[in-house]
Write a structure and sequence with these properties.
Elements: E1 6-11, H1 17-28, E2 31-33, H2 36-45, H3 49-55, H4 63-69, H5 87-105, E3 108-111, H6 115-118, E4 125-131, H7 134-145, H8 149-171, E5 183-186, H9 187-208
Parallel strand pairs: 1-3, 1-4, 2-3, 4-5
Helix pairs in contact: 1-9, 2-3, 2-5, 7-8
Length: about 210
């Protein structure tokens, strides 16, 4: 596939988004982009990677700044950037620039970081939202992180809330709302491999048009 398709994946915690993204990239021969953005953002910003990692996909918690700029200022077409901007917002802008640059160079699969919004003007963008049945998500989190069910439930609630707040704050849109995406899939029905294959076929069909 020669065209620079950009596949963006937003995901509920425990739905297998990262693994599915990796397999989609493998099936299509695309570049997979996720944690790499932390390293690239650290290099570009001068901040230590550990600092970047600690605030990755977290909206600013500066109430005064939010009130001053407007609750969804980054949902505007041209967000401002200056030295007084909180580090969370600097990171969002830096990662957005990196996402656009990578998408312009080659076909990519991006996981999280509002990539569907950042690449809204990318002609070959396909945006996916992954969700799952709570029972399956709990089981997956228990196995992945070696925690009990109660701890898994807390992790799921906390992480989904963080991702929702991040997306809603920086885009002015609603995380998980069906019409923000081209395709939404319940990964509990198809599993990691099955979901990845469906997405890959979806992209191939879109490329034929």
């Amino acid at each position: 596939m020669s065209e620079n398709f950009a596949i963006t994946i937003a995901r509920q915690y425990g739905s297998g988004g990262r693994e599915i993204g990796e397999k989609v990239a493998e099936l299509l021969g695309f570049k997979y982009v996720d944690r790499e953005l932390i390293t690239l953002a650290a290099q570009k910003s001068g901040f230590h990677a550990d600092v970047i990692n600690s605030i990755d996909e977290k909206a600013t918690n500066s109430l005064l700044y939010t009130l001053a700029m407007g609750s969804n200022s980054f949902g505007a077409p041209h967000a401002t950037y200056n030295i007084d901007v909180p580090i969370n917002d600097k990171l969002f802008i830096i990662q957005s620039d990196l996402i656009k640059s990578l998408a312009s160079e080659q076909p990519c699969v991006f996981v999280g970081r509002c990539a569907d919004y950042v690449l809204a003007d990318h002609e070959k963008r396909i945006s996916i939202f992954l969700y799952g049945d709570m029972e399956c998500r709990i089981k997956r989190v228990c196995e992945t992180h070696d925690v009990n069910e109660d701890e898994a439930k807390k992790l799921i609630a906390k992480t989904d809330k963080r991702r929702m707040n991040y997306y809603n704050f920086y885009t002015g849109k609603k995380w998980g709302k069906f019409d923000n995406y081209h395709l939404s899939i319940n990964t509990s029905m198809l599993g990691i491999e099955g979901t990845a294959k469906v997405i890959a076929e979806f992209v191939k069909k879109a490329a034929e048009k």
